[in-house]
Design goal:
By secondary structure, the chain is mostly helical. The chain is built from 17 helices and 2 strands.
């Protein structure tokens, strides 16, 4: 039978002899959760062609997974505090497997959205905070810091390895295997968890906040919709037949997002003053490690997943690579993440995590900036390699330490909801990174291609529009592609669009690196509730 502790940190002084096997089980589950954020990136052109769809629709599948995931993380983290974290982990893994099965059998974007974005997103939201809370309850002292570092390294490495694994599966098998592997791993995780994972809960938990869940979900949906669909409808003036009171739907969506998120803040503050359950306890933001750790978690996710969304498109559409070649080119970044996590852990043990996080974000910004320098219609692997290594090492440095910092000064009984908050911020960062950076890529590429095609003799406006649509949505070879001048214009436009997108990602991460200097330097053996030793 499982041993249940009232809250993380209340476990018996005797260490669980199965704790390292439990860490493997939980980390393996985390791996497939995070992998789903990037494994489909290299398969986007293939899925677009298979489903006769467009990139914007696929962005909704990928961003929708992150959004559903993010919207429910805190609530499910809190529910795990009430009913038991191991039970939530099992329920989430089962739903994740069902969603993966539906996605693997899908024949339309709508079916893929139901399986991937909805069911997998809900299942992942139940699993992720449970993994972190169980680790917090199972490990103590320096071992807890090491376990958190493993958790963070797996989270960062899975995101970076996604394009490589997706390339192999898409080229040699089918993109559907990206989901079929989840159908295999998730049930195995449940069986292993029954034997090796202890349960824990917070006996003082007060319930959840349904109104808060609804309000924040609507607000986040409006925000991501506005950013993703700006290239289709226009940021302000409508560029399509769809309009609301003379304006594009985008400003209205962003207005709804602003209002709902403002209502959410007011609602949560009011409920907290009345000592009622909340989705997000804004009072926890008084803890500097939690506050700045969350900010840097979101920034790191925006830079990592936003860049890894557009770079595979650049390699496949701009350089005409196969999916497996694209994944192989990105593999050094995945390897560098694990190297960076190991080295970062060693440095943190001597100097503390603060400086490792700052160095990691600086390296990530440098790596993304080096991508922009390397991009051209004749980019070589050697030109990309410095950026891939810096980007990967930076992710490894930062992710291996941020988890420990975020939870370092949170009271033990709040670790479930705090873990959910960290996961929510990471997934919102992922969703916004893909949406914003993907939107910049789409608008800039389309603009550059259209301007270039106007200089090509013999092309009518309707032909130019068709070429632009096909080139930016990967609906096969663009009309007129047999004309070398057209092919060069299209490739150059995609290069320029990708460069603009990654420069935005670079700027976001630079801001994060500056903000990371405000993170307190937590001692390596600090547990939840322990104060920092310095600044």
């Amino acid at each position: 039978m499982s041993t249940t502790s009232p809250y993380p940190g209340a476990a018996s002084a005797q260490a669980d002899p199965k704790r390292w096997i439990a860490l493997v089980v939980l980390s393996s589950s985390l791996f497939i959760i995070v992998l789903d954020n990037t494994i489909l990136n290299v398969a986007v052109p293939t899925i677009v062609r298979d489903f006769h769809s467009n990139v914007s629709s696929l962005q909704w599948v990928i961003s929708g997974y992150a959004l559903v995931f993010a919207s429910l993380l805190i609530s499910f983290g809190r529910l795990g505090d009430i009913v038991g974290r191991r039970k939530m982990f099992f329920a989430g893994a089962a739903l994740f497997a069902v969603g993966s099965l539906i996605a693997s059998l899908s024949h339309s974007v709508a079916q893929l959205f139901i399986g991937e974005s909805l069911l997998e997103g809900i299942g992942a939201a139940a699993m992720l905070p449970a993994t972190l809370s169980i680790i917090s309850a199972t490990f103590q002292g320096r071992e807890r810091g090491s376990a958190f570092a493993v958790w963070g390294a797996v989270a960062g490495g899975a995101g970076a390895l996604g394009p490589f694994l997706g390339g192999i599966l898409t080229t040699d098998y089918s993109w559907r295997w990206a989901f079929r592997i989840n159908v295999i791993i998730a049930p195995l995780a449940i069986l292993a968890g029954l034997k090796y994972v202890r349960d824990s809960r917070d006996e003082r938990a007060r319930g959840i906040d349904p109104a808060g869940v609804v309000v924040v979900t609507v607000g986040l949906l409006g925000l991501v919709f506005g950013i993703i669909e700006a290239s289709r409808y226009g940021w302000w003036s409508p560029i399509s037949s769809t309009k609301i009171l003379g304006l594009s739907p985008v400003p209205w969506s962003l207005l709804v997002a602003f209002v709902m998120l403002l209502v959410f803040v007011r609602l949560e503050l009011t409920r907290a003053r009345a000592d009622k359950a909340v989705v997000f306890d804004f009072g926890d933001l008084v803890h500097r490690g939690f506050r700045y750790g969350l900010i840097n978690t979101g920034v790191l996710a925006m830079g990592e997943f936003g860049a890894f969304f557009v770079i595979p498109i650049f390699l496949q559409a701009g350089l005409h690579f196969s999916a497996i070649k694209t994944g192989t080119w990105l593999l050094p970044a995945g390897v560098a993440v694990f190297v960076g996590a190991r080295v970062g852990g060693l440095i943190s043990g001597k100097f503390g995590p603060k400086y490792v996080i700052t160095a990691g974000l600086a390296l990530e910004a440098l790596g993304i900036g080096l991508y922009a320098v390397a991009f051209s219609t004749h980019t070589t692997l050697w030109q990309m390699l410095p950026g891939l290594i810096c980007h990967g090492v930076g992710i490894g440095f930062a992710t291996s330490q941020l988890t420990s910092v975020v939870l370092s000064d949170i009271p033990p009984e709040k670790s479930g909801s705090a873990s959910g908050a960290a996961g929510m911020v990471r997934q919102v960062g992922t969703s916004l990174g893909i949406a914003l950076i993907g939107a910049i890529f789409a608008t800039q590429s389309a603009s550059k291609i259209r301007d270039g095609l106007r200089a090509v003799p013999g092309l009518s406006t309707s032909v130019i529009d068709k070429i632009v649509a096909q080139a930016t949505n990967f609906g096969g070879a663009p009309a007129g592609a047999s004309n070398p001048q057209v092919g060069h214009v299209v490739s150059s436009g995609i290069v320029d669009g990708t460069r603009a997108a990654v420069l935005l990602a670079c700027g976001i991460v630079v801001i994060g690196a500056l903000l990371s200097t405000l993170v307190p330097n937590i001692p390596v053996d600090a547990g939840p509730g322990r104060p920092p030793t310095g600044h």
